[in-house]
Specification:
alpha+beta; three-stranded parallel beta sheet; about 300 residues; about 45% helix; 11 strands; single chain; elongated
Length: about 300
Amino acid sequence: MGVFTNLFQDEIDFIEKKYKIKILEIKNIDNGILNSNFYIKTKNKKYILRIYEANRTIDEEKQELILLDRIIDFIPVSTAIKNIDNEYISIFNNKKFALFEYIDGNSITKIDTHIIREIAIYLGKLHSFTKDISFVKYNRKTRINFNFYYNKLKKSEIDFKFKNELLNSADKINGFDFSILPSGVIHGDIFPDNVLLDDYNCMELKGFISKCRLFIGARTHATIAAYSTCVPTLVIGYSVKAKGIAKDIFGTYKNYVLPVQSLKNKDDLINGFDWLKNNEDSIRQHLKNFMPSYREQALCGKKEIDILVGE
């Protein structure tokens, strides 16, 4: 949203005509990285004017504006205003313009658990709303051109550690059809590239969990799936069994289980996660060393049951 393109008088005149407004004040909005944005004040209202800088088509840019209009009822977003031609985007001098409603507020200068909770709630609503939106319909260009960097890397004569491994991984990514994955919008831009889990069986769900770097869970079988696949796990315990399982594995439940009854301070969960992240390597190694024998013990129990059933 930094200002990369200047706004000239003939363009100001064009905006006033297209949106039937009389501009009294214009200010650059300096922060941001993608488009040029301006604060606009009229006699009775304030707006945000955007000049699009990305190399996208009008249809690609309109996807975001249409989405904003659809989610305004449950997420406080700044929506685009249609011009006198009933269009979201106006074109003049080969520039694409959009005018947005202005939302009063202050920039966030300090992140706390309240803000994180608010963000999570809105992201959850957004993700839920967009999970059934067609991947093709919202297939906007990403900001990183995969093929450009891949080809540069492949043609590079510079040799470095893991170059071949990186290229092999890139080949696998390039050949994968991401449109077959369930998807939805999770962040501020509308790239449907985040996996949503629908109705899968227990083995498939365990497979998803096993791909996690870290896991936070409250349900017993989900945390067992994480433990058994050597994923460092923080358990939000609601019963004594969570403590017992952690004590079996680690010799203690301290730092591994946060009983819900003891969650009193707003930072308890964040502190618990920080500890897990700071110790993830040692926890993962412990699980790798411990789990084979632990699984074997579980199989011994099955054998005993088989013997009893056989009798």
